[in-house]
Design goal:
Number of helices: 12
Helix content: 10-25%
Strand content: 25-35%
Largest sheet: 6 strands, antiparallel, barrel
Distance between the termini: 120 Å
Strand order of the largest sheet: 1-2-3-6-5-4
Radius of gyration: 32 Å
Number of strands: 24
Structural class: alpha+beta
Length: 503
């Protein structure tokens, strides 16, 4: 037995020494070298987390936002006679494809009782006001609204603004679900958003993404307005044909934008969508509801976008100047008696900021000013001879006024969307005309445009009476509220008579 114990003692000592060595090594590595790359025995760090993304919280937010948003987003069907519409390709088709399949050129006239265009809209009040895009409702003879519960209504067009691509509709119903406008100025690049609409004929579709940019311009609205305002929220939430006019909401289900366009070579989603910011959309809607038309302020300047190399190069070549490209807007001309002139701005000044909005290009300026009303004051920061200055400018409307206007205050030209210039006697003699005026500045989407009149067409008669001047047209239509009959000559010499109801 003793011999056996003697044999085991060396092994026991080795075991004790090994254990002590292990404990010593653990203590040494844990205390003396805890910053080492080989610190296998580091204590637990309570602040550390695995890099995998837990979607549970975000998922709950998305579900809540979707439940709030879907009932307030509607489908809009545009019924129109395409033969009566301008030949220019519709914005809806250009940027959202053909809802009936095929390219726009291949499109056939839809069968009777079939819509010629489809989009989305957002209910913004329980009594049936709906916001959408101007290009969704353009040229419509009838607008049908279908709720998420499949109930259908014929909508009335309250008003529209091609400059921002916003339209306001109304259906006769009460107690409807609706969305609140959020403050789009608080939207941050990188935050989660949901796009809700009716793409590809699939009702009540929700897609998610992030805000990938703010204040984006894509030179889209210049096709329907001479004074476009573009400051889109850019998102990578999937948007496709039919989403136009739908809602862009934050995870709280609040409306931060109206989906309007996509950047795509195919007409389908390729990664980027664009929405009108809610602050701008809300201002347009409030104006239409309160005044019947949009109240928009103007500086009274002719601008040159210094960020556009092509524009600057063309201007330098034409005027033989040497203006440098960069950020800001160069004032080519300041209108007489406009707000800018009254405040002391002059040609050659470079506007760099309006209130808190940094002006890097023309669209920054148009958004900062165009979202204001006549009579509003803005602080304009500008450079003159390299020196920075700040001046307060009182904005005016296009007629030079500083007060708000209603439809009753509009001129005949503003109501029907065209100006008129007299024809020379020689022209009348050469073409065998007894009367006529030349149409000028025909506004896209106006009553004159809807019946096919464009710039340089000759209007011979209005309501069966010869017209030879702007005054003749004004005399016939001033205060008139019935149907208007226009006889005009197109570029091929064809005489056509069409009409509309005086707005």
């Amino acid at each position: 037995m003793k011999n056996t114990l003697k044999k085991l003692i060396p092994y026991a000592l080795v075991g004790v020494m090994s254990g002590a060595t292990t404990i010593g090594a653990y203590t040494y590595l844990n205390v003396k070298d805890k910053d080492s790359d080989f610190n296998y025995f580091a204590p637990k760090n309570n602040d550390a987390k695995y890099a995998s993304f837990n979607m549970t919280g975000v998922g709950d937010d998305f579900v809540k936002a979707a439940k709030m948003t879907v009932p307030a987003v509607v489908s809009i069907k545009n019924f129109s006679n395409r033969k009566d519409r301008p030949s220019q390709q519709d914005l809806f088709e250009q940027f959202f494809g053909n809802p009936f399949g095929g390219s726009p050129r291949q499109q056939q006239t839809p069968p009777p009782n079939m819509p010629t265009g489809m989009g989305s809209g957002v209910i913004i009040s329980p009594d049936g006001y709906i916001i959408s895009n101007n290009h969704v409702i353009a040229g419509a003879n009838k607008l049908e609204v279908v709720l998420s519960n499949k109930k259908s209504y014929v909508a009335n067009l309250v008003g529209t603004d091609p400059t921002t691509d916003i339209a306001l509709l109304k259906i006769e119903e009460k107690g409807l679900p609706y969305l609140n406008f959020a403050n789009s100025d608080n939207v941050e690049v990188g935050q989660w958003v949901l796009a809700v609409g009716n793409p590809m004929g699939l009702n009540s579709t929700v897609t998610a993404g992030i805000v990938s940019a703010k204040g984006r311009s894509i030179d889209l609205l210049s096709q329907q307005s001479r004074t476009p305002i573009e400051s889109f929220i850019q998102t990578d939430a999937a948007i496709n044909p039919g989403n136009s006019g739908g809602a862009l909401v934050d995870p709280n289900g609040e409306l931060i934008g109206i989906n309007s366009a996509i950047s795509s070579k195919t007409g389908y989603y390729e990664g980027y969508g664009f929405a009108v910011p809610s602050n701008l959309a809300r201002k347009v809607v409030e104006d239409i509801k309160k005044f019947g038309l949009v109240q928009r302020g103007f500086l009274g300047v002719i601008p040159l976008d210094l960020s556009d190399q092509g524009q600057v190069a063309a201007f330098n070549q034409q005027k033989r100047t040497n203006i440098k490209t960069g950020d800001g807007v160069y004032l080519v001309e300041v209108a007489a008696k406009g707000g800018a002139e009254d405040a002391g701005l002059r040609s050659g000044d470079i506007i760099t900021k309006v209130d808190n909005t940094v002006v890097s290009n023309y669209y920054d300026l148009s958004f900062a000013v165009g979202s204001k009303r006549p009579g509003d004051k803005v602080a304009v920061t500008y450079l003159r001879n390299g020196k920075q200055n700040v001046v307060n400018v009182t904005l005016k409307d296009q007629k030079g006024g500083t007060s708000v206007r209603t439809k009753a205050d509009l001129t005949v030209s503003e109501r029907i969307g065209a100006d008129f210039e007299p024809l020379s006697d020689k022209f009348k003699t050469d073409y065998g005309l007894n009367s006529g005026v030349i149409a000028r500045n025909v506004q896209e989407g106006s009553e004159m445009a809807k019946i096919g009149v464009v710039d340089n067409y000759i209007v011979i008669e209005v309501n069966g009476k010869n017209v030879n001047s702007q005054k003749d047209v004004d005399k016939i239509l001033q205060g008139y509220t019935g149907n208007v009959q226009i006889k005009f000559v197109d570029e091929y010499g064809r005489i056509t008579t069409k009409g509309f109801k005086m707005p």
